[in-house]
Amino acid sequence: MTSMSVKQHKWILIVDDHGAIRNIMRERLLRHLIDFELKIVEAHDGLQACRKMLYQAFDLIITDMKVPKKTGADFLHVVQGSQINASTPLIVLTDRPDELHLDNRLHHIQVLKKPLQWKNFLSNCRAQLELGKVHSRIPAFLLNPFIETAETFATQLGLHVRQELPVVKRPHADMLGDVLGVLYLEIGGVRHHFVLGFEQSLLDFISSRLFKDAKYARDKDRVTREICQEIYKHTCDIISSHLNVTTQLNGIEIFRDHREPGYLELKRTRGLTIPIRTEQGVFFVEAIAGVKVIKAQAA
């Protein structure tokens, strides 16, 4: 289990068309918010920022209201409609805050007047990063490595992968995939839950490629557990390389029957599903928010 003193890894998107301003923001954030491990991504216009948000989860978005190719207001509406970043805190920079009329459906927004007072800017960045309870959100530092590892796993099997747009998993909606592997993780004393869902055709292909023993390959529960353990292991390697921490795997549970009590408990949850399409079928990385441990079996 991770020590509570370990720094939290945070992903920040900075949107500004002036490279010098982006550089100053990056340098000051890295210098002053040293109690976080920051991963900073930059975009020089609204269109580039929208593209980065499609497949990347962020813990904070900082944007100027005047950016090329998409107005600041249009960009904020894209954030609002984003499947993966709709609840991400935002800091909006403008030289005319009194003239800024934001849609009242846009939440988690802090407006700062330019020119920036850097002490105030950094204080607000810190506050936005700390908004909300960790266990009620899907942290970017876990979601992004899981997606990366799942894609790498498929690529190493000779498959061509295409990540599709994220889909919100709403309470009482079915999980995606014919066979599900649920991973119960703990990091920093906080529980996180990820589901790897597989279409049957893809699972059959993986089984034939990884396991020469036909009897073993036909045991889909065992195969799914092996895949989950492999993806978990490499995900932890990525997390540890950034955070210098270890995670604890409390268990893996396999579901094939949608009538099982554990599966029905999963259906009640909310979360986010990232489909990854291959020529042999689709698998799904599903991040679940706020689910209790159902019946965690030994991994």
Question: What's a quick, concise take on this entry?
Answer:
This protein has 299 residues and is of the alpha/beta class.
Write up this protein.
The chain has 299 residues and is of the alpha/beta class. 37% of the residues lie in helices and 27% in strands. The chain contains nine helices and twelve strands. The protein has helices spanning 19-32, 46-55, 72-81, 118-129, 140-156, 200-210, 214-218, 220-243, 261-267; strands at 8-15, 36-43, 60-64, 90-94, 109-113, 162-163, 167-169, 179-187, 190-198, 248-255, 270-278, 281-289. The strands form two sheets. Strands 6, 7, 8, 9, 10, 11 and 12 form a seven-stranded antiparallel beta sheet that branches. The chain has a five-stranded parallel beta sheet with strand order 2-1-3-4-5. Helix 3 links the parallel strand 3 (60-64) and strand 4 (90-94).
